């Protein structure tokens, strides 16, 4: 049986960043992932200023390719487009390459990666956690970190299936045709949005909606209809469900971070910033020997607040207020820039 201090399930951004931070702190850790990297996944791949600033601070010298986008456009129904230049660029990446860069950073700093699929875990009498992989191999650890994404099996073992999730559909069109971020709001797909990101070598079109699994065919048809409306040729469409209900920790030695814990922005779906931050808070909990609920208290409070913001935004009053605000690009720009810079991080 293999023994490690910290076992991380999932080598995505949350898992790789957490592993790198633990290695920097001299903590013995191992990442297990079933995928072969580099691998792709459904995600816009945009890093807001708060996300790339935090990443640069956590992983000094990290290198990755990105395309800076500052032109923002948003529209309600057929109203005039609200357009402005953001103060700081959104760094658009390809998740396949970006995630691999994070994993390589971890490995370059002595981190070990093992290919395998998680099956279950058990709490042991000695306070350790025993993890069994689908291969039958077992690993004993002092801390188990769930960084296995939206479909986290660790989360399901503890809390069952997610109670609230968003459906994200995406289509990529190769070739850089535009240089902006565009978001469209319509009562035709409320609560939800249609969006377009100009990314590295391609344009990415997406559709987000708060619905259940049974509604996938209907929303895929709605996405295709919206693509046609905006003159976008139909291509291969991929989808993913992202859990939006944040789950509380039930044991101090089993920590859920990133999408596995439901740490994604309830309004925008942005997950990379919260993946980095919960990864750093997990490292802090382990190194300082404090409960994750204490180290991550700010994130838990923020997630609760975002649920209220989501409900207000898509309420009749909030819907009308935001639509009215779109008439004044300078106001929207100020709100956007202020939000991007407001987040802080205590090392």
Automatic annotation (TrEMBL):
It comes from the Bacteria. Residues 4-158 form the FAD-binding domain. SUPFAM superfamilies: FAD/NAD(P)-binding domain (SSF51905). GO terms for molecular function: FAD binding. Pfam families: FAD_binding_3 (PF01494). InterPro entries: FAD-bd, FAD/NAD-bd_sf, Geranylgeranyl_reductase. PANTHER family: CONDITIONED MEDIUM FACTOR RECEPTOR 1, GERANYLGERANYL DIPHOSPHATE REDUCTASE. This is Dehydrogenase (Flavoprotein). It comes from Xylanibacter ruminicola (Prevotella ruminicola).
């Amino acid at each position: 049986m293999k023994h490690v201090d910290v076992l991380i399930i999932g080598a995505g951004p949350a898992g790789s960043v957490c592993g790198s931070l633990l290695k920097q702190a001299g903590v013995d850790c191992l990442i297990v992932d079933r995928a072969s990297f580099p691998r792709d996944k459904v995600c816009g791949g945009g890093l807001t200023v708060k996300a790339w600033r935090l990443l640069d601070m956590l992983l000094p010298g990290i290198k990755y390719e990105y395309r800076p986008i500052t032109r923002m456009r948003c529209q309600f129904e057929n109203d005039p487009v609200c357009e402005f230049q953001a103060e700081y660029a959104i760094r658009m990446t390809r998740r396949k390459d970006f995630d691999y860069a994070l994993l390589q950073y971890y490995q370059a700093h002595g981190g070990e990666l093992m290919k395998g699929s998680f099956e279950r875990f058990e709490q042991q009498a000695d306070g350790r956690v025993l993890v069994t992989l689908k291969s039958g191999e077992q690993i004993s650890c002092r801390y188990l970190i769930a960084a296995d994404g939206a479909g986290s099996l660790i989360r399901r073992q503890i809390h069952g299936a997610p109670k609230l999730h968003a459906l994200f559909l995406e289509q990529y069109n190769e070739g850089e045709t535009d240089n902006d971020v565009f978001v469209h709001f319509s009562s035709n797909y409320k609560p939800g949005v249609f969006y377009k990101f100009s990314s590295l070598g391609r344009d990415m079109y997406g559709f987000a909606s708060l619905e259940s699994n049974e509604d996938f065919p209907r929303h895929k048809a709605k996405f295709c209809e919206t693509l046609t409306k905006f003159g976008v040729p139909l291509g291969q469409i991929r989808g993913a469900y992202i859990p939006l209900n944040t789950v509380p920790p039930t044991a101090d030695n089993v920590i859920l971070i990133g999408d596995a814990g439901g740490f994604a922005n309830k309004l925008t779906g942005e997950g990379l910033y919260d993946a980095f931050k919960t990864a750093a808070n997990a490292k802090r909990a382990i190194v300082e020997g404090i409960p994750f609920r204490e180290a991550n208290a700010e994130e838990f409070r923020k997630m609760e607040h975002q649920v209220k913001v989501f409900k207000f935004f898509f309420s009749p009053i909030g819907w009308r207020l935001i639509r009215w605000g779109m008439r004044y690009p300078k106001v929207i720009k100020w709100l956007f820039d202020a939000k991007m810079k407001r987040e802080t991080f205590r090392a």
